[in-house]
UniProtKB/TrEMBL annotation:
Keyword set includes Transcription: no
Domain of life: Eukaryota
InterPro entries listed in its UniProt record: Di-copper_centre_dom_sf, Polyphenol_oxidase_C, Polyphenol_oxidase_cen, Tyrosinase/Hemocyanin, Tyrosinase_Cu-bd
PROSITE patterns named among the record's database cross-references: TYROSINASE_2 (PS00498)
Domain Tyrosinase copper-binding: 336-347
Cleaved signal peptide residues: 1-22
Disulfide bond among keywords: yes
Single GO molecular function: catechol oxidase activity
Full protein name: Tyrosinase copper-binding domain-containing protein
Stated family: Belongs to the tyrosinase family.
Known cofactor(s): Cu(2+)
Keywords for the protein's UniProt record, in alphabetical order: Copper, Disulfide bond, Metal-binding, Oxidoreductase, Signal, Thioether bond
Amino acid sequence: MEAKRWVSLVLLALILVRLSSLDLFVKDSDQQVQAISFISDLKATFLGFFDGTWLTTEDASAENEEIKPKHVILTPNLTTCHKSLSDADRPVYCCPPKRESLEPIIDFEFPDISEPIRVRKPAHKVDADYIAKYNRAIAIMKSLPYDDPRSYMRQANMHCIYCTGAYNQQNSNSLLKIHRSWMFFPWHRMMIYFHERILGSLIGDENFALPFWNWDSPEGMFIPDMYLNGSMIDTQRDSSHLPPQVADINYDYFERGLGPEDQISTNVAFMYNQMVSGAKKTELFMGCPYKAGENGFCDGPGTIELAPHNALHTWVGSNLNPEREDLGAFYSAARDPIFYAHHSNIDRLWNVWNELRGNKPAIEDPEWLDSTFYFHNEKSQLVRIKIRDVLDSSKLRYAYEKVENVWLNARPKPSVPPKIARQVLKMRENQNPFLDISNQAIVSPDFGLNGKRLDTTIRVKLRRPKTHRSKIEKEQEEEIIVVYGIDISKDAYVKFDVYVNAVDETMIGPESREFAGTFVNMKRGVRTVLNKGDLVVKRKTVFKVGITELLEDLEADGDETIWVTLVPRGGTGINTTVDGVRIEYMK
């Protein structure tokens, strides 16, 4: 009976493949080809059932033994690419001209060890010969037709597809996203890895490597000159932020008005917080564990993704466009060539963070390691690649030129001597209690705000469950502030900062030790579904920030209570409510 069933399925598959010649096509407003025949959808859906990436299984020990799944893999269903929405709710269509599920798929293989190591250099240090070579590669890529997966717009639209929810997950009707979780670093590493190799192939240079925008170093805190000429030009940038303007890597839609030296020192101090004191534990840096299915969804970005990543996307994008296109909107970000230099630096910082912790495996969860995505290589072949394949950049045959990470020695100092700050805060509490936003009479580690709107500064006093912890205890568990139940009523840009024991948070920023971290929400547009029953998971966001080292510097490690302040930036908190703030300990 089983044999007859499989024969019938094979015959049906052959019929559907034969019917593929009946597909009809139309071009949309962007001259992108879309299949409109119901037959192609039927065929693709059917073939999706044979995609072997749904789950990994244990081998059966006997012919008739039931095969049980080991774990479900997060991966796109290639039969489901559909229209999605831009950040401003405008429909966008980023899908390839034909379903990728109809293409032959090969599994990723590491480059041969005989290949030269591609060395990525700081963009502000490359020479004229390199710039000419890179310009030529981009020009060739832009000249390729859209049906060539190596073409510039197809490359850019890969980011659009995965960032606006254009794919459903395999074996699920939930949409797939790769931002705001532990998928962020490895997925972008995959994207720029294949992009780099395609560029090199187009100019016949196996040594070609992408540059990285070294915006965490004072010398690199400007849009590199190479992106102002030739094929590197993108007219959709904020003209007020072009050189010699120093980049604000913690940008919040408003100009701070700082001079170059002050902006640079603020940037350097901010990097220390995002890379060191605020990123002591894996989840704080990498983001929350996002897994397959509706129940596997999470929304908790890591420090670097929040900023400088999100902040610089916004800072570069044009202030004349409704969504700050190109770089400022997820759907269009990869159209700007500087996108790849931006993400090369983020990729480099992932390596640096691993080095700071002794290159110990950060995540050993097989559901993360086996998460699978698809990219075209330099031969236009569709490649199936897993996160476990990209954890060691040396095996991928690329490296970064060593640069000084000046922020490692930029540990901020308190803006006010801690003893004086403690006295001022106590006096202020007696005169005008911070607890006026709640009837909560007992100070606890969890301060409920009952969905309070973040349209103004919120201050709460929290009791610390553990004080005077030993060095070993601090290494084992990071004390963290958790801002939970963050609910953004519409898809909007939102930014707020978190301070601890701040006397006057209006006068300080990342350069002061009281600054604990920043939350940034970029517009995402993940709301359009393929079928009526498909799920757009919307859950409240959680923001976690480490404070163990901060408390030491504020001489508050032995204090039973601390004051926590949430400061909305740029008027962006009007659409945001918060359920509460608490203290936890993360292993």
